[in-house]
Specification:
Elements (H helix, E strand, L loop, with lengths): L1 H20 L1 E10 L4 H12 L4 E4 L6 H12 L3 E4 L12 H19 L5 E2 L8 H6 L3 E3 L13 H10 L5 E6 L5 H16 L2 E3 L2 H7 L11 E2 L7
Parallel strand pairs: 1-2, 1-6, 1-7, 2-3, 4-5, 5-8
The structure holds zinc ion.
Amino acid sequence: MRTLSLMIAALAILAGCQAKEDKVIAITFDDGPNVTTTVKMLDMLEKHGVTASFFVNGMHINEESAKVMKRAYDMGCDIENHSYSHLAMSGLSEEELIKEIESTSALIEKYTGEAPQFFRPPYIDCNQKMMETIPLTFICGHGCEDWLPEVSAQERARRQIEAAVDGRIMLLHDMPGNDNTVEALDIIIPELKKQGYRFVTISELFKLKNEPLTPHSCIMYSVVPEQQ
Ligand SMILES: [Zn+2]
């Protein structure tokens, strides 16, 4: 009996250790899809055998870019909502907010077959009205100023690697011409793998951490679970 209890205790400790060592990070991209840089990001993700999440703008979805978005979805990536027009949205009316979100979600669902569950506000411009009106879970993430041409690939990688922590949401951009971020990924992914991290999509991250989706709340996640 005692041996059995000890064995169970040992197994529980082992399970605890394994859970602790399972460090995960969600790479996310904003401002796509497009037929240039989004393709390069996908090639880079494929090279390293990882998936990520793409927060897309409805205005960028057309017949051609939708094929790239579908490729991402078929690879196992998440396609999420980044609004239709990429406006600072805190000044919009409820009606305008709903239009921005619904038109984009409808396009994503049309081309992938799956509606998004997460939303990242453009410019992280956000207020109470948006959180009450938009029926999605709000995501922020850790950025590295990767929209500034003067921030090198090495510097982008350094900033993201330094900020790595279990449950981290990494905020990057796949806008056209952002090749420094493609190059940064080639540094970030192998280095964080070496440190024991695994890369998951944003929906996988919430499931793994047993974190419920929180539409209509005042939470905007940069790490899951949210840390104070
Ligand atoms: Zn954006």
